[in-house]
Amino acid sequence: MNNHLAPTAAARASASDRFSVSDRTRPRSQHRPLCLESGGECEPRTRILYADDDRCILRACQIMLDRAGYDVDTVADGAEAWGAIQCIPYHLLITDNEMPNLTGVELIQRVREALIPVPIVLASGSIISFEGVDCDALLPKPFTGRALLDTVRDVLLRPQVPVSRLRRRCVGRSPFPG
């Protein structure tokens, strides 16, 4: 028995970390995720900013959206979201309303006043109508994972200004990679 020739569990884990399950010939950094809609490879991932002060909701939604093929940045309050959205071109903003420092409605007002062309989903248990809120969709809490994914898909399928044509200049320093 040549047990010393068999790969150790650590070596197997290390190798599996470098390669995706679906394509062992391409390093993970070069692997393009499969598109859930067509079954083929996705184009560069859609970038979403999700703002909510509830860390459990943030994490659960980030996992669901990531598994659906989206690239998700999360922030814990409206002020952080405002800082991020001024510097990074997002395809979609999802925001809670009741957050510290800046509410979701105040964030939406700032984004609209700054003419940042991003669709916005307000995910809130406290607001149940669009009246006075300039968002593209309302997602009442509590919501299911299916409701979240359907809302995101529906909003993103509407005609939008291509992110590649957006020009933004970040004033000051941002902690967010761009």
List the helices and strands and how they pair.
Blueprint: H1 9-18, E1 47-51, H2 55-67, E2 71-75, H3 78-87, E3 92-95, H4 104-113, E4 120-124, E5 137-140, H5 145-157
Parallel strand pairs: 1-2, 1-3, 3-4, 4-5
Helix pairs in contact: 3-4
The arrangement of helices and strands along the chain is HEHEHEHEEH
Major sheet characteristics: 5 strands, parallel
Spatial shape: globular
Proportion in β-strands: 5-15%
Give the distance, in angstroms, between the N- and C-terminal Cα atoms. 53 Å
Mean pLDDT: 75
Q: Any guess at the CATH architecture of the domain at 45-155?
A: 3-Layer(aba) Sandwich
The beta-strand count equals 5
Overview of this protein structure:
The protein is α/β, with parallel strands linked by helices and 178 residues long. It has a domain at 45-155: 3-Layer(aba) Sandwich (Rossmann fold). The chain has helices spanning 9-18, 55-67, 78-87, 104-113, 145-157, and strands at residues 47-51, 71-75, 92-95, 120-124, 137-140. The chain has a five-stranded parallel sheet with strand order 2-1-3-4-5, sandwiched between helices. Helix 3 runs parallel beside helix 4 (104-113). It starts with 8 loop residues before the first helix and ends in a 21-residue tail after the last helix. Mean pLDDT is 75; it is low at 1-33 and 162-171.
Summarize the structure.
By secondary structure, the protein is an alpha/beta fold.
State the main characteristics.
178 residues, Rossmann fold, disordered N terminus
